[in-house]
Each structure stands twice: as structure tokens, then as C-alpha cells.
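Sequence only, no structure available. Ideas?
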Amino acid sequence: MKSEKLYDAITEVEEPLVEEAAAPLEKRKKKALRLRWVSAIAAVLALAILLTAVLRPGREGSLTAYALESPVYPATAPYPDVSALMNGENVDQSKLEQEYEAWEHARWQRVAAKNSYSAAELRHYLQAAIPAYLGGHEGENAACSPLNLYLALAMLAETTEGESRAQLLSLLGTQDMDSLRSLCENLFAANYVDDGADKSLLAAAIWLREEMDYKTETLQRLAQSYYAASFRGPMGSEDYDAQLREWINAQTGNRLTEQTKSLAFDPRTVLALTTTVDFTAHWYAAFEPERTEDADFHAGKGDLPCKMMRMDDTGSYYWGRQFGAVDLQFKENGSMRFLLPDEGVSPEALLRDPEAISFLLSSGYDDWEQKKSLIIHLGLPKFDVSSQLSLEQSLKELGITAAFDPETADFSPLTDSEGVFLSQVKHGVRVAVDEEGVTASAVTMLIGAGAAMPPDEEVDFTLDRPFLFAIYGMDNLPLFVGIVNQP
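Reply:
I predicted one. C-alpha cells follow.
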């Protein structure tokens, strides 16, 4: 590959993928790559889930936890540094080509993983789980990662048997464990990247009680299909508690320190499953910092001051009976979607609206009929929201009851110890959006409004009251969903 072709490949082609080349011309034009990197941080997110099972206290053991199994994570490669090439300087062409080929190979592996499953396989779970996870928080900020929770619940299914597993498989929409293992392995691989342009790092671990016997084959399967590390240590000790917090903080860029500072194992804890996501993406088209202005956000309990980012561009305008939405593209893959309820409709009401949930689970551009291309004057508040949810009741309402009952819970695939049952489900999320490091560029926006048809030429779309958001990765599935009631 000659240097000028490499330059073209990196700076003018948005994706080195055949499926992108086959996309409609209009769509490809809207996603044409600009010559400069956009360095704005579109979203910085992190998530941690803790599922614990408890048993009667055992004897004291060693204070040092140690790893039993370590996963081999999917390959990722850095995006080539083309700054010297762009500046006309002499470069090591062979090295640059090798870096590009390594990055492209890792990218193709993610594409292959993505193509191995379809959104339809998770639709049943997502339709039921998103409203259940985020319901009951009227007036508060709330956020979840339904796909991360999916991986955690799949790990729980791997460690259970009987009615406990059957209920989990029913919620997760799979018939058997082999199908679930394959889906989770590819779901993880498709959403795992850290190449300098995108960052979506998933991690998982199982924490075990040191004096109990556990089945090695199950720990090995957790490492292989769910990329889960295994640790063993003295439950209830300060050292083991600190290791848990340090592991979660390390996996999430220290963005969940408030959520994790009180995490500790009960001395009776038998096992804990943890899964995390550390996600950063760059806006494909940036907000201009000088256009950010002071504004009022009309919250349910009164107006709140906010920093409103502004942008004008042509995009697709989407609408439903009770909402409007804008979809902002990320630099390399995925997007962030914003649903603005009609006046008098709350974000929580949208979660109960089948049409709104259907839109959240749609690809937007390809399969939503109520759309129109317009000039859009967008106003988006900068926000940094955190939430910490306890999901025991939500999961019980979704049909997961046997694992919570000491009489019916069956953890025999993991341990022959009796009396093990699920006791807690904790879920912490942080989402931050701003315009840091922005340069002017183009944007593709998928937007919806209320029941009425939009104007013919342009529209003002300002998110100055409570709204929903969703963040999508390469597979166009919602990695995060949340409600902003107070930016």
C-alpha cells in the first residue's frame, strides 16, 4: 500500500468494510470522514454490577486473595498515528502500513463477532428489561447498561441449574447454554476496543470465598465465554474488600469511586459476580465551545442552570406519538440518541410507551419510517449524571425468583455447598457529555418529534427539559440507556 493510498484510507474512508461500501449513497455521503480528528469526548461512561450470594459464616482464612483463572481478551490495536504523514514529513512507510493492517485486522474481528448475532436475539430481553431497570425513579437521574447486565445475568445462568437457570434463560431469550455462551462471547468481542479513536472496554470477574470448594470447569468456562477472571479470598476482610473496589475502579477509569467506596463483602458472602464497562467516544461532528451558553433546564421541581451546547446542521428528523429524537454519530462507530418527550409527557412515561421502546431498539436511519431531512438547530445540555440502582425487585418482576430463594436456588454447577442463593444486585453508572476539544465538522442526526409532521425546512430541537438517552456501539444495540431529569 503506497503512502498516499494509506493516507486516503485513514482520512477519507470512514470504515474499511464491504458492508459500508454497499450502503446507500445518501447514507455514505452523510458519514464522509473529515480530514482531521475530532477530539471532543462525546461520552465517558462506566458501569459496575455486583451480584452476591450468601451462606452461613465459615472459618477465617488467609487475608490474601489470589487469581484462579484469567481471561484472554479480544485483540485490539491502536489506530495509526498519521500526523507526520499529514504534515508532509518523512515517515516509516512500512511501519505505518503494518500498524494500519493490525488495526484493520482487529476491526474485522469485531465485525465478524457482530455479524454472528442479530439484534432480534436480544429484543425480548431489551423490551422487558429497560423499562424494569429504569422504572420507579420519577424526577431522578437514572441510567443502566442493559447489555452489561445481560452479560452478568448470563454469568449467573452459567453458575446455576434447574429452575434458577430456566428463569434466566427465559429472560435472556435463549433456549440453551451453548447458544447463550456463543452469543455472549461474540457480544463481548464486538463491543471490546481501545484503539485511540474509540474506547469500549468490558471486564468481568467472579469473587469466591477462600475456604469453599468450587468447580474448576465452571471457572474455566466463565473465562472462555464471558472473559471473566476468578479470584478467591477471605470474605469480609478489609484486604479483599479493597481488592474488589480497586479492581472495579481500575476497570472503569476511577469514574465510579463514589459508587464503589461503600462496597464490601458481607462475611457470609459465598460469591460475587462483577461486570464493568469503560466507554469513551468522540463526536463525529463537534460542538463549537464558543457557542455554549448559559441556559435554563426546566426540571420537574423548577428551573436549573445548565450549559447549553449549540449546533446547526442538516440531518434526519424522526418522530413518534409522544417524542422527538436526535441521533449524533460518533467518530468511528455507534451513536448517542436523545429522545425528547412532548410537553406534558415524562421520560418515565416514554419507558412505558411501546413505540418509544421500539424506536430505542431500532437502527433509526434504516428502519424508522417517520423521518424527514431538515436543517436542525440543536441544543444539548452538558451533563454528568450518576446513578446507583438496586435491581433485586426489578429482576423478580422480570421472573427471576428461584435464584433469590434459599429453598429453590441451585448453584450446583459452581459449588456443591448447600444454601447458596442470590442476595443483592447493585448497578452503578456514570455518563458525562461535553464538547471538550471540539473542531468544526459535520454531523448525522436522526431526530423524532411529536405526533404532528415536522416543518418543511428547519426545526429547533432543544433538550431543555427531562429527556431519555441511549448509547449504541458497533452492533447498534443500546449499551447504555438513561434518563436526565437534572443535568
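DSSP finds 15 helices and 18 strands in the chain.
Hope that gets you unstuck.
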